[in-house]
Design brief:
By secondary structure, the chain is mainly α. It is built from 18 helices and no strands. The longest helix is centred in the last third of the chain and has 22 residues. The radius of gyration is 29 Å and the shape is elongated. It starts with a helix and ends in an 11-residue tail after the last helix.
Length: about 325
């Protein structure tokens, strides 16, 4: 019976921790556990063999074999063959002993992405934080050189996960470090814009301008100009944003209408706004264009009340809800 054999060998292991007998006991226990036991138990034995018998470890457990066990463990965890609690506990044990292996860090990052896909942004962020801290320590040593792009990629993904979990302050602090590789500059600026936007720090959003911002970045910039009552800049950036999208966002249209009105360009923009709005022409536009005369103070008040209400809805929709918000307890 394999279980009985494992039990006897495990008992012998506690009595013989060194020397040839101890090594032979561990070696046989490893063979039986590898064949009949779980991947984590087998990996624990690999770690013990390496700790106690480093000179013989490669002979007993070749690196390729140990690595195959590692991949098996993480594959079993991804499939749900191992309950999440024991799997994650095992993962943390492995991380402490194997974090110096770049291949292992890739497995840890793969786990983090699986967590993120399930909406567990906080746990995913903690994984990325562990990996980033490990890479920084390695990079500061004289023995390991971590590629700059790897450090940038991990740091920026961590910042994104912090934003996803409703922590723009932490993300902004992380993004204060410059990128090591210029290829990541655009993404860093986009994430900085998102962090400052979520904090309502409109002036700092506008410090993140790049040559060709992506639509999400441009939306944050347009919103910042609008919040700062920079009507000409708000109008231009909203027009640019609308020109890029296949469909007009009602919130963006409302902000464009107000910016056009405040900058004296409402009639110039009327045709474009109507074409973008289709059948659902905002009432606000018709109210502004119902007379050739400037809007009265009463009409301005009504317009601004409408925009204020719309802006409140926009902020609520765009805000990232922190993970766990609304849960009981």
């Amino acid at each position: 019976d394999p279980d009985v054999i494992r039990e006897h060998l495990a008992s012998a292991r506690t009595r013989w921790r060194g020397g040839e007998i101890g090594l032979e006991t561990l070696s046989r226990l490893f063979e039986v556990t590898r064949e009949f036991g779980g991947a984590l138990d087998t990996l624990d034995l690999v770690a013990e063999i390496r700790d106690r018998h480093l000179d013989e470890a490669e002979r007993i457990v070749p690196d390729e074999q140990a690595w195959a066990l590692m991949e098996r463990f993480y594959a079993e965890g991804a499939r749900g063959d191992i309950a999440f609690g024991p799997f994650f506990e095992g993962h943390l044990r492995l991380f402490r002993s194997l974090a110096t292996d770049p291949r292992y860090l890739d497995l840890a990052l793969g786990l983090a992405e699986q967590l993120a896909e399930r909406g567990a942004y906080r746990l995913a962020g903690e994984e990325y934080r562990r990996v980033l801290d490990t890479l920084k320590v390695q990079n500061e040593s004289a023995h390991i050189r971590v590629p700059p792009e790897r450090l940038d990629r991990v740091r920026l993904r961590l910042a994104e996960l912090l934003l996803d979990s409703g922590k723009p302050g932490e993300a902004g602090a992380l993004l204060s470090d410059p990128v090591r590789e210029a290829a990541f500059s655009k993404r860093q600026e986009a994430l900085r814009a998102r962090a400052f936007h979520d904090l309502g720090d409109w002036e700092r959003v506008l410090t993140t301008w790049v040559e060709e911002p992506d639509p999400a970045h441009l939306r944050h910039i347009a919103h910042a100009h609008h919040a700062l009552a920079e009507w000409g800049a708000s109008r231009r950036s909203h027009l640019d944003l609308l020109a890029r999208g296949p469909e007009a966002d009602p919130a963006v249209l409302d902000r464009l209408i107000l910016a056009s009105f405040r900058s004296g360009q409402i009639r110039e923009d009327e045709g474009l706004i109507r074409s973008l709005a289709g059948a659902e022409v905002p009432r606000l536009l018709d109210a502004l264009l119902s007379s050739d005369r400037p809007a009265t103070a009463m009409r301005r008040s009504e317009i601004e009340a409408h925009i204020s209400e719309t802006s409140g809805l926009i902020r609520a929709a765009e805000a990232q809800i922190p993970e766990g918000a609304g849960e009981d307890g």
